[in-house]
Amino acid sequence: MDVGYPVLSVVIFLPIIGGILLAFIGRHLESFIKWGALLVSILTFILSLPLFTNFDKTTHLMQFVERKDWIPQFGIQYYVGVDGISVLFILLSALITILCVLISWNSIKEKVKEFYISLLLIEGAMIGVFASLDFFLFYIFWEAMLIPMYLIIGVWGGPRRVYAAIKFFLYTLIGSVLMLVAIVYLYLKADTFNILELHTLALPYKTQIWLFWALLAAFAVKVPMWPVHTWLPDAHTEAPTAGSVILAAILIKMGAYGFLRFMLPMLPEATKSMAPFLIGLSVIAIIYGGIVCLAQNDLKRLIAYSSVSHMGFVTLGIFALNPQGIEGGILQMINHGIVTGALFLCVGIIYDRTHSRQISDYGGLASIMPVYAGFFMLFTLASIGLPGLNGFIGEFLIILGAFKAKKLTAVLAATGIIIGAGYMLWLYQRIFFNEVNEKIRGLEPMQFKEALTLILLAIFVIWIGIYPNTFLSFMHVSVAHLLDKVHQATPETMVTINSIRGGF
Amino acid sequence: MVPLHWYLWLGSLMFCIGMAGFLIRRNIIIMFLCIELMLNGVNVNLVALSHYMQDLRGQVLTLMVIAVAAAEAAVGLAIVIALFRNRPTVHVDEITEMKG
Amino acid sequence: MEYTVWIPFLPLIGFIINIIFGKKILRTQAHWPSTLAVFGSLVLSIMALWDVINGKTLNYDLYNWIISDNFRVSVGFLVDQLTAVMLIVVTSVSFLVHVYSIGYMHGDSGYPRFFAYLSLFTFSMLMLVMANNFLQLYFGWEAVGLCSYLLIGFWYEKRSASDAGKKAFIVNRFGDFGFGLGVIIIFLTFGTLHYVPVFGRVEEIVTQSVNIYGLEINLVTLIALLLFCGAVGKSAQLPLHVWLPDAMEGPTPVSALIHAATMVTAGVFMVARCSPIFDLSHTAMNVVAVVGGLTALFAATIALVQNDIKRVIAYSTISQLGYMFLACGVGAYGAGIFHLYTHAYFKALLFLCAGSVMHAMAGELDMQKMGGLKKYMPITYWTMLIASLSISGIPGLAGFFSKDEILFSAYAAGGVGRFVWMLGTLAALLTAFYSFRLIFLTFHGDFRGTEEQKHHLHESPPVMTVPLLLLCIGAVASGWVGIPKILGGSNHFGEFLSPVLHHPHYEGVTHSEEWMTMGLSVFVGVTGILVAILFYIKNPSIPVRLAQSFSFIYRVLWNKYYVDEFYNLIVVRPVLFIAKSIIDAFTDRKIIEGIVNGLPALVGWTGAQLRKTQNGILQHYGIIMATGLLFILVFVLIRAIT
């Protein structure tokens, strides 16, 4: 366990300090800034590796814990640690940031310094969110990450970037404010911000329901669940490639992580009684997201809506409230991070060449960029859940879990897979097959640096596909513990959604 | 001995004249003078009551008001001059850039 | 017998080598890794068959694939009699197709890619047949579907090809939807996905039933029907057959390997593999038999009038797959697998011959523009003729034995069996007719193409004709391992499979009835050929006149019963309409975005109204302040007075 340095603090603050230090470098030293950012991100990743190698998979207790008083008057602590639910996200964040630095190397040409500062600040805040065990600290990181993201979309984005950035910011903020109310309420009730202590809090059912709605507002927007999903297509479409990748890979995972970290253990009775409702929303998201994809003409928008559909699978798995569902849900989050991140990287690669996101501007690309077409095919297949690639494992476990919980929803969710195949293969056909579109004739082939990022993700796509136990084994104990907590809740509060509505 | 209420009437009168002037006149300098008049109306009240109640706090407050008024006059006139350099008018109806 | 692990993984290595080095380094030599790999698999498969014949079977796990709580599934291999037969079919046809492709694909710009895909396909198919659990079966199932998609769309610059690939994948997904649910229900019922425990315990649940919205369904029936959904998609049975004819857009060797001999028969293999489940459900068995019988007849009628040489063979494949399901449905799994095995050779041969014809005709597919090719390409002619005789069920050839066994089993099974037997016999008549229609239109009569094509006609190179000759041996002799007892044989094939697929026992069926079914099937076969001779050699005006006098029927058949149009009308267009006009344009952009953008707009409007009070005129502010002050004073005064 002991690795000689405080792993979590280092991986949280190394990028933040790195970002601050970059601010002191003259803006004309562009390549120095790029290399600096790359170095910091790689170093962060390397230093985060003990989380992978030294993680004890036999306990549900928090590991790599660091605890210091911060604002003792209010009992606020700097308290970080990881368990099997959060550890993979930290590693994913560290990995994805490296790719974001690489992919922005040539595509960001203005305000280079500020861009990389924002990127590194986001990384630190993201890791902080996943590591925090103090609700106040969590909230700080949660909000802190919003600002650089807002800047990345608003400054380096596409033509409608300001609209998208403000929409993203307001949407998220409204949710967060309700979460703040819940945090304050919990503090007044329990006199602590300590998340683990809050887990042991036995709240009355009515209170749980109110808190559930408040937290749901924050997390559902982030996921995003249907019907609060409309910020995502705009944000994704307008954000620069690195922004889209971070959004897809990490940021939207925070919502689902919030479900697992806060709602399930703190509000078990409310969770159980609301689960059918949330499963319903998830199934709607799966099918609705898929169908909307069929109508999109914009490459990034299509992938953004496919995220809505895939995150529907994640929430479906979580609220199935059984081991397969939750483990599948967590794995699917990782998978979605890798695959959708990779798809956005792919889109970024051709966008840098053509500056068009319109699907109709492409066609026959497989003849021009064959290697690129191969990678895109791999990620497309992973996205539609081909067995042997990562998407399948997650989706299968989720549908299995959902089937245990509620049979009809599993059947409906499975139709989402048919739709998924439809829109992704249609997209692939329109971009890569058919006759070569004159507009894209003579594009330069993929560079090694671009291929490198995709190779890295492709390795994970195949690894998780053929040996998911490397990652699933992290979760077993923690998920089992989490479910114990949920199912301990007294059975008389198992009310159906209809009676809740009556109660209000 | 002049009774207290004379002072209070005087103060009120000054204040009302100042206020009426502030509301009616359009010349920004005159409006300034009217503000000073209102302040001095208050000052008269304060001093009179201070003497009447044998309490020095009123007079201290008066000195404070005078100091603030002086500062305010300095800043205000500076703004007026700066304004006048940019546009050849001191008519407030024509200066509505600060509207919401 | 642990060497069997290399049977699937050798082609995988071939694939990896080709996909990485094929384009840059191997180029025109790219066939080597793939062909060698599949040859290695063939040798190992023969060894495996030999071991299985000597009574050794194997069931082992390679590693744990997915573990989640009580859900455990591994990657593992089951090598038993059924697998051994499938291994031989897959690797032998695959090897011959590899060799043939060296000639057929020569000079194509995607040469390395083609062989990479072929290797990937061989790997997937072998994983499918060697699986020892349902999830790995599903893996192979989807992976062969992927390869089919990639290979159908191999010439992706052609719009029809990329459309056909996409269609194949999506139509298959409809079937896999049911298959996947079936797998999940199997897990939830038995707590495992491995074949052995599932099949061992399936009898325990035979009385259980589930209630689906008031409909009481036997659990075994439900599982069997869901699994059969997958088979219907993969094996192109009614109503999901629409993808297979379009799949002919792919290169011809692909049609031979994937869409005739191996992948499309995966459904039959799966039903046979799951025979312990199917056996316990009469309903499911009857569904399988009737779907098979109807498909056999349905596809054969379409094949009567098509002019595209590959599509005729494609419909013929659908029809023959129908026979196999028909056999499984009446409990004669052995006969179904027997037909699968013989069909693989003669149908692959038909396709490769068609490919050889196309090679000579510079890609021409329309039989109306061929004719008289016999003298230009004798090897192709004779091999194709033998394959056609085989499929028509002429005694002594492979197709005769397997088809006869199926028809007899159906007849003997009674009940639904009698009905599907009639369908099958009728389809046999049509099969013989359209097969010889193809032969006569292509190879007899006068050449009807252009002068340039005529000038170009030639026999294919040896690298293509040698596989034809080898397959021809299969088309003739592969049936000899299953000669029925009544003809003095001992049905080695059925006996060999009996440990896995138990042999049905027919009671009350006399020898004379067996002779009758056999005689009838030979009779209809010969009749079909004679009618074809009459129509296309003796008196070519008959088909034209028939088409005119029965123009309605002709149009329906020519348009394949309008199934594609029907699906377009009830599935494709409504979904796209809902997606574009309702969900995207209305629900998402109007309702949800309306609310999302509406709330800020409301706040903004309120602000705009309020800002009108801030007009920038100092006196207004002063008056408002004074008024406010006045109000306060009045308020205080009133309070003071009262």
Description:
The complex is a heterotrimer of chains A (504), B (100) and C (642). Chain A has one domain (7-503). In chain A, 74% of the residues lie in helices and 3% in strands. Chain A has helices at residues 7-22, 30-48, 50-53, 87-107, 112-131, 135-144, 146-156, 161-190, 195-199, 205-222, 231-238, 241-251, 253-266, 268-294, 299-320, 323-354, 365-368, 370-383, 390-405, 407-432, 448-466, 469-488, 497-503; strands spanning 63-71, 76-82. In chain A, helix 5 (112-131) packs antiparallel against helix 7 (146-156). Chain B has 100 residues and is mainly α. Chain B has helices spanning 4-24, 28-53, 57-86. The relative contact order of chain C is 0.07. Chain C is globular and about 130 Å long. Helices cover 72% and strands 4% of the residues of chain C. In chain C, strand 3 (209-212) and strand 4 (215-218) form a beta hairpin. In chain C, helix 3 (81-104) runs antiparallel to helix 4 (111-130), helix 10 packs antiparallel against helix 15 and helix 11 runs antiparallel to helix 15 (333-360). The B-C interface holds B 19, 22-24, 26, 31, 92-93, 95-100 and C 610-619, 622-623, 626.
